[in-house]
Amino acid sequence: MAILEVECPICEEVLELTDEDRAELAVGDVIVCASCHSEMEVTRNGGGEDFELDLLSAMTTCPHCDEEFEVTPDMLAAAPATRSQDGAEVSLMTCPHCKVKFELELTEEQA
Ligand SMILES: [Zn+2]
Ligand SMILES: [Zn+2]
Predict the structure, then answer these.
(1) Out of the domains of life, which is the source (predicted)?
(2) What's the 64 CA to ligand 2 centre distance in angstroms?
(3) How far apart are CA 46 and CA 33, in angstroms?
(4) Taking a C-beta distance cutoff of 8 angstroms, is the pair 105, 90 a contact?
(5) What is the pTM of this model?
(6) What is the tally of helices (H) and strands (E) in the chain?
(7) Cα 106 to middle of ligand 1, angstroms
(8) What is the enclosing helix (H) or strand (E) of 21?
(9) Structure confidence by residue, pLDDT tens digits, 85-97
């Protein structure tokens, strides 16, 4: 069986999609990365190598004002990386609502 390997744009985890998996996927469906839980929308699924994903923005909730907002790849790229007290790698996000800075952990699961 042919397996298509798709690299997660966030954590670079390789997601393997079998023909069977792809047969069940339609354009507009969402795949979730098993490693970092990023959501990707299927934008092409033609067969063979004709497959494309578009990263969906993750939603997060500000711990300060409780407003939910989108974390776009651009925001992540702009957010300074730091380490939390337990040594996990986190991004320092700024809430667009109340402007508070808080740590956002992206990779919860360690292999
Ligand atoms: Zn990932
Ligand atoms: Zn806030």
Answers:
(1) Bacteria
(2) 5
(3) 21
(4) yes
(5) 0.57
(6) 2, 10
(7) 9
(8) helix 19-23
(9) 888 888 899 999 9
